[in-house]
Structure formats: structure tokens, C-alpha cells
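hey so u asked for the seq, here:
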Amino acid sequence: MIILARQQNEKTVMGILSLLPGLREIPHLKAEIAWYHNSDTRELYIWQSESQGQVQGVLGVEIYDDEITIIRHVALSPESRSVKNYFAMLSDYQSQHPDVFLMGTLDNQKLINKWRKSVSKTTA
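ran it, C-alpha cells below
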């Protein structure tokens, strides 16, 4: 299940995002989170699988014209990292935003492509 991150989730969001390369330094991490909070077109989501009761992942998105969403950050806690969980997080977001085309950054476009290919196999 994916839900919009709130202020009360900030420490969890910071902890999971700090696992990403380039976001390990606290000032840079705080600046990145502020970047999401300072715009109506950027959002941070938290994700937890149906079987777990705790937050396992964070998804950072940037929305363009309500038609395209760029996945800026996709991160899972170390014990939750699996292709299945990455795909579940992306699928949960897509199911909440069915009319949006998901794109990735240079860092995560391969993951988005693999997810899209797996989704097209299950719907074909």
C-alpha cells in the first residue's frame, strides 16, 4: 500500500532515502526532502506491503501536466529490497494514478522498463 508521506513520517522517509547513493549526507538529504515539500508538483510517498505493518519504502515523484510522472527516487529498506517489492511499489502508485505514464531518471529507468515489461506480460 502506498500513501502520501506526512510530517510524522519524516524520520522514516529520511532513513530510507539516506540509503540511496548521493543522499547519505544529512544536509543534502534535508535539501532533497525540502525540494519535494516546496512544490505542488512533487510528492513523497511511503510504501508498505500488505503483509508487513511497517514502512518499507519511499517513492519520490514529480508530476507533469497530470499525464506524466517522473519517478525521482525509489528506495526500499535493506531487508525489503527485492524486485518483487520494487515492482509492487510501482504498481501500487500506478493503480492510484491509472492515467499517468511513469518515467524514470537516468538512475532508475532500467527498473521502470523492467516493471513495465512485467506488467504488460501479466495483462496480456
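The first helix runs from residue 10 to 17. The chain has one domain: 2-122.
lmk if thats what u needed
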